[in-house]
Amino acid sequence: MAFYRGRQNRSAFIVKSVGGAAGEEEVVLDTPELKMLQGWSPDGRFLIYHGESSTSGTGIDVWAVPLAGPHSPVALAQTRFEEKLPTLSADGKWLAYESNETGRFEIYAQPFPGPGDRIRISTTGGAQAKWRRDGKELFFVGLDGRLMVMPIRESADATRLEPGVAMPLFLTQIRGGAIQAGGSGRQYDVSSDGERFLVVTLVEDAVSTPITLIQNWSPDAKR
């Protein structure tokens, strides 16, 4: 398993064996910059995350850190804008993430680990992308709070993605909205078949308690 640990102005990614006898912890990456672990590559060769780098000066970007060798991070999506919340397809071929380079957050996808061209998935804003297990659909939260689904297919030569038309599924009630709530992670998950969803939801009282206002009342008045 891999997990994040933050302490004493440091943030680190830790890998530890959980099969059989518990193994020793391995520190994969330990830096002072803020970074958020988002998952493994399906082949177990990389940890995927978003975070800052003091050497790049480009703010929050998408990175992969190899688990073999010197653990030197590799930039996957790095611009002067903000890229975050990367997610890999189950076959490990495609990376989706969100970026605000248009002035609002949109979903983009590109080959992993590259090279290859990226494409823009959403057209009216989007955040918190998540693949269906077979890679044929990509889910994301619209900036109006609706959970969206877009059919995805590979080109005939399997070198690029061909997105379909995004369709709304249902309105979420994510506290803080899709962008603010997704600052460190997704606020939902989806079953492997894309039919069931687990969503962090803001719950409001269905029935409010009525308020009774009494005017010109004196506690000493006779009843």
Description:
The chain has a single domain, classed as 6 Propeller (Neuraminidase). A hairpin with a 5-residue loop joins strand 4 and strand 5. The chain has 223 residues and is mostly beta strands. The longest helix is centred in the C-terminal third of the chain and has 5 residues. The chain has 1 helix and 18 strands. Strands 12, 13, 14, 15 and 16 form a 5-stranded antiparallel beta sheet that branches. Strands 4-5-6-7 form a 4-stranded antiparallel beta sheet, with no helix packed on it. Strands 8-9-10-11 form a 4-stranded antiparallel beta sheet, with no helix packed on it. The mean pLDDT is 87.
Supply the key terms.
1 helix; globular; 223 residues; mainly beta; four-stranded antiparallel beta sheet; five-stranded antiparallel beta sheet; Neuraminidase
Blueprint of the fold:
Blueprint lengths: L1 E6 L2 E6 L10 E6 L3 E6 L5 E6 L9 E6 L7 E4 L5 E6 L5 E6 L6 E6 L7 E2 L6 E5 L5 E5 L4 E9 L6 E3 L3 E5 L5 H5 L6 E3 L6 E3 L24
Structural class: mainly beta
Count of helix runs: 1
Question: Mind summarizing the main beta sheet?
Answer: 5 strands, antiparallel
Mean of residue pLDDT? 87
Helix content: under 10%
- CATH fold-level name: Neuraminidase
Shape: globular
Number of strands: 18
- As residue ranges, the low-confidence spans are none
Helix and strand pattern: EEEEEEEEEEEEEEEEHEE
CATH superfamily caption = TolB, C-terminal domain
CATH hierarchy, class: Mainly Beta
Radius of gyration, whole Å:
22 Å
Number of structurally distinct domains: 1
